[in-house]
Specification:
With about 100 residues, this protein is an alpha+beta fold. The protein is built from three helices and three strands, in the order H-E-E-E-H-H.
Length: about 100
């Protein structure tokens, strides 16, 4: 998530790890990092991200998937199972878009 004023990323990716290591009694806990998965465009399937092939990967967030569904676009093949995709697409088409504008009385 970008800061609206200066555009820097305001999400601290290691925050959860830092909090856990500061918790009382958890000092000896080993935090195992997770491996990032993304859609590999060359294989047309989800795969573990390889930074040496950055341009071959598409990072698909929930927001991006909802935007695809809202716009009636198909997500990349094998990026998610067909049944949930159809369900999300159908529910997005039937729900009215919410306005984020507030009105004063």
């Amino acid at each position: 998530m970008k800061h609206p004023g200066h555009g820097d990323d305001i999400y601290e990716h290691t925050h959860g790890r830092k909090v856990l290591t500061m918790a009382p009694g958890l000092g000896q806990l080993t935090i195992i990092p997770f491996v990032v998965a993304a859609y590999d465009k060359t294989k047309a399937q989800m795969a573990f991200y390889d930074s040496s092939r950055h341009d071959d990967f598409l990072f698909i967030s929930g927001s991006k998937m909802r935007a695809l569904a809202r716009d009636g676009a198909e997500p990349p093949p094998a990026s998610w199972p067909p049944a949930p995709g159809k369900s999300c697409l159908a529910s997005t088409k039937t729900k009215p878009r919410l306005s984020h504008k507030y009105q004063r009385d």
